[in-house]
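It is worth pausing here to work through a concrete case rather than discussing structure prediction in the abstract. The textbook approach is simple: state the sequence, then state the predicted structure, then interpret. We follow exactly that order.
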Amino acid sequence: MARGKRTATAKKRRSRWNSENILSNAKSPLASCDLRTVLSHPLAWSSLTTEDRREIISLFPDKAQILEADTDSARPNFDILMSDDGFRADCAAYVANLAHGRHDPVWLAEAWTAHERRKAGDFDAFLKERFEEEWGPLPEPTLDEIHVGGSDAQQTVDEMDDIVLDEIVVAESDPPEHEGLMSPQGS
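Step two, the predicted structure:
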């Protein structure tokens, strides 16, 4: 008995990767690929919309890396990019960060929150205590280490000038401790 042809069509398998999660999921195929090779493939550029191409071209710091700059057919010079150490390092860093989950939206939100808290000084006491446990007490800041206008120093430039002038006046009014060390012999 002859078998009939299979009439059932195979289910089309949907990819679990879309434009959002392929760029943020630590298990993304991009987390283990050679990103430089992917980005330098001609289809990577030609598949972009005109607006996307313009945006990418605008991010280049040097027009020498752009072929036909300032035209509608402007494109990166992939020959230069493939031998550029900065491009190589940035691609490797992106892949490593993606593999470690550092592009996950939740991780990024937590990282930005922590950044803002550190910037506001929420962890200063903890860091000072930890430093002192490992290295001993912090030295007193010198005049050179005080910065003007920052959140740590509320002094104006005029106040800093007064401090500097006071230091100079005190230094000039004190007698030298080792007078004669720099004077000519016999004087």
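Step three, interpretation. The CA atoms of residues 40 and 101 lie 24 Å apart. The beta strands are 66-67, 75-76.
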